Amino acid sequence: MSEHRFILQPYCGVGSRHTCPSCHKKRCFSRYIDTEKQVTFPDDVGRCDHEQSCSYHRTPKEYFERNPHDKPQHSDWSAPSARRATPTEPTKPTKPASFIAADTVVQTLHGYDRNNLFLFLKSKFGPDDAERMMREYCVGTSKHWPGACVFWQTDINGCIRTGKVMLYDAGSGKRVKEPFNHVSWAHSLMKLPDYNLRQCFFGEHLLPMNRGKPVALVESEKTALIANWYLPEYVWLATGGKNGCLNADALRVLSGRQVILYPDLGATEQWRQKLPLMKSLGIEATIFNFMDDVADDTDKSAGYDIADYLLQIEPDQAVLQSMIRKYPMLQKFIDDLQLELVSVERYDPTTGTLLSTSNNLNNEK
Ligand SMILES: [Zn+2]
């Protein structure tokens, strides 16, 4: 993880984009931050979004070369690789990933009252938590279909690989698949020329901020958002599909981390086959079998995933008990995860300020 100590500030959050010191355009400049909060860089250490016209990029490495006294002692860090460079296979050179400008993304982080996913989350968690979930995970509003959302795939360095545009039903929170499956991709809709899409995990930008936490991997972006609300002691990431980014290129960011896999019903075997690959990448992965072991046939045919179970849990013990009577498998689930109702304080990951305190099911393990 040390190589990701210095990262471009994730762009979700107020004031995370600045005027470029080179081309002087507004809201296009991302500064580097120290995730260990020891080094504060001057304002010109960062990267301009205008890769073609401006291409300004001053890395922490360059900064330390000029200011060796500011370099942290006894640390084994290395600066994030240069602009557009992402880890490449030594044997098979990979074309560098293309990115979407952060400004484009920021413009979508509004209009949540027209966003069906937000409306669904708001009905479950209230407006404040719903908005925090959307911003933390970088979920925007898309005009592609009325009510659509866009899940931005932001990588570990804060660069945007693409956005997955999807439509949910505001009442049920289920995906709209009729009369056709409502899924589209931002880079296609934007008609960006020669776009080299290299997908990353949805939520990957949260990894450097949550260094000590184990990672929980699910298929669906919506599930990652919801599970993160219930079980914030994990960093919840989504693969974006059955195969999504379960490949060496994308998995590399999880190297050295403890990872729990939560495959959807029926996908366990497929994910199990990825375990040797993960092991070879230094990922300590285990599969959580709850879905296949405990779900009954009705749930299976309904295609339940962990979010559907979590959504049955209300953050109130009395309600919880009645839910357990109604859904006995919840008790096993709660026991397995050693959950208990505790008070949780939430902080803004970018500023460290206290956002809210709420009762929550928590895992005190
Ligand atoms: Zn610039």
Integer-rounded radius of gyration: 21 Å
**Low-confidence segments, ≥5 residues, pLDDT <50?**
78-92
Q: Alpha-carbon distance between the termini?
A: 23 Å
Number of strands: 13
Quaternary assembly: single chain
Helical/strand content category: alpha/beta
- The CATH architecture of the largest domain would be 3-Layer(aba) Sandwich
Q: What is the percentage of strand-forming residues?
A: 15-25%
- Helix and strand pattern: EEEHHHHEEEEHEHEHEHHEHHHHHEE
Sum up the overall morphology in one term: globular
Provide the CATH top-level class of the largest domain.
Alpha Beta
What helical percentage do the residues reach? 25-40%
The biggest sheet, with number of strands, parallel, antiparallel or mixed sense and barrel status, is: 4 strands, antiparallel
Biggest sheet, strands in spatial order?
Answer: 4-5-6-7
- Work out the count of structural domains: 3
Which descriptors apply to this entry?
365 residues, Dna Topoisomerase Vi A Subunit, Chain: A, domain 2, 3 domains, 4-stranded parallel sheet, 14 helices, 26% helix, 18% strand, binds zinc ion
Note down, in words, how this protein is organized.
It is a single chain. The protein is α/β, with parallel strands linked by helices and 365 residues long. It folds into 3 domains: 2-70, no CATH class; 102-189, no CATH class; 204-363, Dna Topoisomerase Vi A Subunit, Chain: A, domain 2. Helix content is 26%, strand content 18%. It contains 14 helices and 13 strands. It has helices spanning 60-66, 102-106, 116-125, 127-136, 186-189, 221-230, 248-251, 268-272, 275-280, 290-294, 297-301, 306-310, 317-326, 329-336, and strands spanning 6-8, 29-34, 46-48, 139-141, 149-154, 160-166, 183-185, 215-218, 235-238, 258-261, 284-287, 339-347, 354-363. A 4-stranded antiparallel β-sheet has the order 4-5-6-7. A 4-stranded parallel β-sheet has the order 9-8-10-11. α3 (116-125) packs across α4. It is globular and about 65 Å long. The model is unreliable at 78-92 (pLDDT under 50). The structure holds zinc ion. Zinc ion binds next to loops.
